[in-house]
Write a structure and sequence with these properties.
Oligomer: heterodimer
Order of helices and strands of chain B: EEEEEEEEEEEE
Number of strands of chain B: 12
Low-confidence stretches of chain B: none
Radius of gyration of chain A: 13 Å
Radius of gyration of chain B: 13 Å
Largest interface: A-B, 28 and 25 residues
Distance between the termini of chain B: 41 Å
Structural class of chain B: mainly beta
Largest sheet of chain A: 7 strands, mixed
Distance between the termini of chain A: 37 Å
Number of helices of chain A: 0
Low-confidence stretches of chain A: none
Number of helices of chain B: 0
Strand content of chain B: over 45%
Chain lengths: ~110, ~110
């Protein structure tokens, strides 16, 4: 099976702009989670989607949003970008997001805000 | 709220030395426990997992971990490290009822000298 794929791999944006990142989960996986990885804060949970519904949300401002489509593909959007949003954004998928399941991670999208 | 503490931020070993990385978590209920590895320039990969049963779990590349419930610990071990084990290691935990939302430790950077 193909792994989790994320596009684009690299992005450079200017402060104040908005950005959309995409994630395609492993085939058959219905749970998609997003994480932000920075040197200072480590890996932090953003949100999880299951069956097109947001099931969990981390402690991030409302500028961070996401959605999931009927084919389980997910997008996350960051509006009004700030310098501090520069990070590696990771997507992870699992079969159900409940019980004894493993999250598999994609390669990430490296976002740089200037 | 869940939290994960990794005691060592940076570990330097010579090849063939033994490795133990500490991980303690804070959560009152049933948990799923994981160790992930991130090689330079690569994405997060699962090393091993614990869901239930035998508290000593074996993973890929000769790694193992022991779950000690009374100590809320899940330490990673390898009897003899290789140069190729140089990477960053993350301990992660989630609640089985909420497996799409994982909490990660800050990571331990392992450098193995040839």
């Amino acid at each position: 099976k193909a792994g989790v794929t994320q596009t684009p791999r690299y992005l450079i944006k200017t402060r104040g702009q908005q950005v959309t990142l995409s994630c395609s989960p492993i085939s058959g996986h219905r749970s998609v989670s997003w994480y932000q990885q920075t040197p200072g804060q480590g890996l932090q949970f953003l949100f999880e989607y299951f069956s097109e519904t947001q099931r969990n949300k981390g402690n991030f401002p409302g500028r961070f949003s996401g959605r999931q489509f009927s084919n389980s593909r997910s997008e996350m959007n960051v509006s009004t970008l700030e310098l501090g949003d520069s990070a590696l954004y990771l997507c992870a998928s699992s079969v159900s997001g409940q019980g004894a399941v493993v999250q598999y991670f994609g390669p990430g999208t490296r976002l740089t805000v200037t | 709220a869940q939290s994960v503490s990794q005691h060592n931020h940076h570990v330097i070993l010579s090849e063939a030395a033994s490795l133990e990385l500490g991980c303690n978590y804070s959560y009152g209920g049933t948990v799923n426990l994981f160790w992930y590895v991130q090689y330079p320039g690569q994405h997060l990969q699962l090393l091993l997992k614990y869901f239930s049963g035998d508290p000593l779990v074996k993973g890929i590349k000769g790694f193992e971990a022991e779950f000690i419930k009374s100590k809320f610990s899940f330490n990673l071990r390898k009897p003899s490290v290789q140069w190729s084990d140089t990477a960053e290691y993350f301990c992660a935990v989630n609640a089985g009822t909420n497996a799409g939302k994982s909490t990660f430790g800050d990571g331990t950077t392992l450098t193995v000298k040839p």
